[in-house]
Please model this.
Amino acid sequence: MASGARNGGARAGSKMDRQQGPAATPKPAAGKPRLSASASAGGAAYRRTSSGPLPAAGGGGRASSDSGVSSRVRVAVRLRPRNAEEQVADADFADCVELQPELKRLKLRKNNWESDTFEFDEVLTEFSSQKRVYEVVAKPVVESVLEGYNGTVMAYGQTGTGKTFTLGRLGDEDTAARGIMVRAMEDILADITPETDTISLSYLQLYMEMIQDLLDPVNDNIAIVEDPRTGDVSLPGATVVEVRDQKSFMDLLRIGEAHRAAANTKMNTESSRSHAILMVNVRRAVKGRNEMDVSMSAENGHSSSMMGSLRPPIVRKSKLVVVDLAGSERIDKSGSEGHTLEEAKSINLSLSSLGKCINALAESSAHVPVRDSKLTRLLKDSFGGTARTSLVVTIGPSPRHRGETTSTIMFGQRAMKVQNMVKLKEEFDYKSLCRRLDIELDKLIAENERQRKYFDDEVERITTEAQCRVVEVERECKIALENEKMKYHQEYLDSIKILEEKWKVHQQSPKKENEKMLRQSAEDESNDLRNQLLHWKKMEATATAEVVKLRRMLDTEASQKDKFEEEIAVLKSQLMQLSLDADETRMSLDTGDGPGKIFPGLDSLMSHTRSSQPREQSNGPKAPVAKLFEQVGLQKILSLLESEEPDVRVHAVKVVANLAAEEANQEKIVEAGGLTSLLMLLRSSEDETIRRVAAGAIANLAMNETNQDLIMAQGGVTLLSMTASDAEDPQTLRMVAGAIANLCGNDKLQARLRGEGGIKALLGMVKCGHPDVLAQVARGIANFAKCESRAATQGNKVGRSLLVDDGALPWIVKNANNEAAPIRRHIELALCHLAQHEVNAKDIVSEGALWELVRISRDCSREDIRMLAYRTLTSSPTLQSEMRRLRIEC
Ligand code: ADP
Ligand code: MG
Model:
């Protein structure tokens, strides 16, 4: 293949250049028709070669679409400047190539007049900086790798043309000299997110179909493992070191370089005979899409955490392979360099196989001998695979190496025809999901364990608590039960007791009970009686003492009584005597009384004794009274008026009456309160005899003007009127009328006397018709009229006679001619007195008294009265005119 490639390539290159030269354009796009022309071949290659990767993608490992994007292998040519030796040795010769970088063309001189022109994707002159080389050759690939595509940067060329210079310069002394490896790593590290992305690498050397681990030289025969399902190749035996920063990367490169050098020394070979392969694995988590999926699943109503935990994250696992190939110059099979033929074959195998494969791919051959060498197996994805591949072919300027240079150029030209289908190396990160699920599972198991433990503890706690409660409740129940039992037992005992009592009560008959009660009450009663007896006994003793005392007093009283009775007997006999004396006196007085000297006697009063008692001589009427005063004393006599004994009272009042008949006694009697006592008898005594005698005594006392005032003052008129109205005996009326008649003779008392009903009382008494009574009444009226007349003649202004007012006139007229001389005389006088006053004249006329006056003036036996009547008739104009009218003449 190597020779074929070299020769065929040169020819084809020149032919192509010639054939296609006109079609070629200086612009990069100019290559496109050519590239598109080979696209069908590339597409075929793709179809063939992608049968490996595709099933792998279709196996569910890929998260992205399987449809790749067509991407041709890009090839740049770099010319090394002349080195010192060449500057000397080739000083006289021109370079074998001429570069037209702006046209991306390279002219390869065949001789001084002929050259072949080749177009490349980039033409880098000897003056191109490392930076520019990186940017043109590697940067697009690096960027592609960071986006998730596999990428390959490979240097192909004769030993000493600058492959290692281009790829592997560390730039320790001059940062501008840093090669593609260093710069690529710088860009990668700058782009990744350390928290989610990881960069790891393996550094290998392929020599004589043996893969050696440059990071672990002991590991010198690493097997290529091909996934039978996906066709992906991997080196599980290689050391993979994670790169965190540039420094550690540089260190790794140094280590790898040192090991390479050491290994080559050990194997007695040159580094130019081995291929150095740096494999950088970029693993990046895809942000956003997974989260979006989570939110979408949440919207669908699923548990976000659950879905989040079950949905695997998406990861992009891309790989950048930087291959520093062994020198492309042919190895002398003769073993001039100390290699055996087998060695030489083996050394060249990989490179020649690569050439064959490139040729096959470029020509869209049906068969691409990928499996012929380890290199082609390792670079399976880089050519005709899914990687973005950039190839830099390095050439020297020396015309002495024109052949090798031509061969290199032709290799590059063929490589430019290789079409890849780049694909995103994106897949679900099941491992990470699995890890996460493992962690979650562990958590859940731990949580479950914790909860179970908590549950068990809780159950144990509740059980313990319940047991305690049960014990407590049992204890409480037992106590309560005991209490209840006690209570009911007590109640039972009480009930029994009550029943027994009831039974006992029931047994005792009601009769028995009654007897008991009766006996009890009888006992109580007897006790009471006993007490009372004691009490009464005490009382009796007291009373007996009292009785003895009283008896003694009684005896004293009795002896006194006897004494008094003797005294009374004496007094009675004396009284009898006195009464008789009084009668005698009255009789003698009665015969000599006149019109102005009325003296009421006690004749009738003593009438019953008059027959039985012999009339004594009246020569010493005062002797018995004086004797009585001397013997008894006025006070004593007056006190007897209030005696309990009715007889004593009667005798006493009679004695007083007889005493009062004596003018000399009257003053003493009144002074001793006799008048008051007599008036009292009128008021209080129920015995008419007493009242009659008392009235007589009052009548005697009433002869005195002073006494008249006293009688009036003590309501005597009223008492006398009462006595008169209650009287049954005419003598009583006679006494009363006599008393009032005496009062009528007092000028000053007239109005009051009349006011207290004196006149009415007098007139009231006339109906008894007794001449003695009538005589007293007539005397009173005459007295009254005389006083009125006297007042009138004295010039006092007086109105009509009160007698007329009280209706006395008709009685006067009726009795003016009474047959009893005393009556007739008093009335005649009264009528004359009345007529003397002119104001009474009309009434005299109207009552018919005029005729009586006329009769008196004519017929009266007493001359003085006859004259008085005549004077009266002649002096009164009214009477005169009436008489004239009636033609009466006196
Ligand atoms: P290769 O790896 O292809 O065998 P190297 O990279 O070892 O070649 O280069 C060989 C020599 O050439 C080294 O000394 C290197 O410094 C030098 N060299 C290569 N390319 C350049 C360049 N573009 N500019 C300057 N010196 C270079
Ligand atoms: Mg090298």
Observations:
- The pocket of adenosine-5'-diphosphate (ligand 1) is lined by residues 80-81, 83, 126, 157, 159-165, 272, 327, 394 (CB under 6 Å).
- The first strand starts at residue 69 and ends at 72.
- The first helix runs from residue 2 to 20.
- The radius of gyration is 96 Å.
